[in-house]
Input
Amino acid sequence: MIQVKLFRIATGEEVIAELISEDENFVTVKNGLVVLPSPDGRVGFAPWASVIDRTIPELIIAKNHIVYIAEVDPAIKKKYNEVYGSKLVTPEEKKLIL
Output
């Protein structure tokens, strides 16, 4: 399974992306989506760095430009994986009510 993380960038953008690698100074990500909040409390997504060469989708970000890295809400992560991941969809867990 790919590592999907939320990155808060110093510019204020929140970006959901696949974490490829990390060292003490940089993180490498790909398939970034910028989070676009709406006035009604919902969120939308748009491609981040939309004019990069799609044959080389990795972006290297200096850690001094990242405010935080966090886990992504499971429902959002599932949708991200449907688009960029293995294309396998995990069925929802069925619960038995007695």
Summary: The mean pLDDT is 88.
